[in-house]
Amino acid sequence: MPETPLSAVRAQELRDRLEAERARLRSQLAEIGGLAFDEGFADSGQVTAEKSEVDALAGTLRENLRDVEDALAKLDAGTYGSCERCGGPIGEARLEAMPAARRCIACASARD
Question: What is the pTM (predicted TM-score) of this model?
Fold first, then answer.
């Protein structure tokens, strides 16, 4: 059964969730940016490991933020809910679970 386009109300609900997620991600990135590491700490290996973990987390947060901002731009452009790979609709259940989803289930499951 083909997917139907999102209603205006449903699109607004997803926009609200995406905007809240964007605010949360920005806040987390700001918190990470404020972390200080004691360079004089005797166990410099531990400091290096912690910095590496924080850098990896920041990278993941930035990637998630890009996905959310891209989804918001698609809502503005009227292309939200279309798979970036096949152009078909992304199911509403998938968008509910992952509002920033870029691909439909079939394309997300396929190996590139």
Answer: 0.83
